[in-house]
Amino acid sequence: MHPIFNTSIAAALALSLAACGGSKSGNEGDASGETATATGTATGTTSQAPAATEATPVSAAAADAAPSSFAICKSCHSVEKGKHVIGPSLFGIYGTKAGDVAGYSFSPAMKASGLTWDDATLDRFLASPMKTVPGTRMTYAGQPDAAKRQELIAYIKSLK
């Protein structure tokens, strides 16, 4: 494979991870404050996502129903139950307490936030995650467009 192509792949992956503010071991984070970095081999392969071993409860139609505004979200979040990548799976989170997804290690700030993922909370969080939960490791700057936030909220609510 051509060396310029390998560099392009690594750069694209690094930018995708930076958009979500990736963290250690594909988790929201731990107390060490370490963050994940994009690493690869000479062939340009990188992957921290676990391989799927069973059929997932999210139908192909639900995954395909994602609004275009969800594109940046899926670089860090899965919509499959129990499939965590850099961020936690968003499957079934609507109506749950923030920082309470089985199998995912959240930052102390998210665990202590006291938030419940409803329309108002999601709207505020998606507008400015770091302002809503100071200390979150989700470094996404936020979605300033209220209509796009509403699309995202409707989609997140459908993931059950």
Annotate the secondary structure layout:
Elements: H1 3-20, H2 60-64, H3 108-111, H4 119-127, H5 129-132, H6 146-158
Helix pairs in contact: 4-6
Describe this structure in words.
The structure is a single chain. This protein is mostly helical. It has one domain: Cytochrome c-like domain (Cytochrome Bc1 Complex, Chain D, domain 2). The protein has 6 helices and no strands. It has helices at about 5-20, 60-65, 110, 120-125, 130, 145-160. Helix 4 (about 120-125) crosses helix 6. This is Cytochrome c, class I. Pfam families: Cytochrom_C (PF00034). One of its GO terms (molecular function) is electron transfer activity.
User: Can you tell me the CATH architecture?
Assistant: Orthogonal Bundle
The computed structural class is mainly alpha
Number of domains: 1
Q: What share of the residues does DSSP label as strand, in percent?
A: under 5%
Number of H- or I-type helical stretches: 6
The total count of strands amounts to 0
Order of helices and strands: HHHHHH
Give me the CATH superfamily. Answer: Cytochrome c-like domain
Largest sheet: none
Radius of gyration over all CA atoms, rounded: 16 Å
CATH topology: Cytochrome Bc1 Complex, Chain D, domain 2
Q: Low-confidence spans: pLDDT under 50, at least 5 residues?
A: 1-57
- For the termini, the CA-CA separation is 41 Å
Q: What is the helix content?
A: 25-40%
Morphology call? globular
Q: What's the CATH first level? A: Mainly Alpha
Whole-number average pLDDT? 74
Keywords: Electron transport, Heme, Iron, Metal-binding, Signal, Transport
GO molecular function: electron transfer activity; heme binding; metal ion binding
Organism: Novosphingobium aromaticivorans (strain ATCC 700278 / DSM 12444 / CCUG 56034 / CIP 105152 / NBRC 16084 / F199)
InterPro entries: Cyt_c-like_dom, Cyt_c-like_dom_sf, Cyt_c_1A/1B
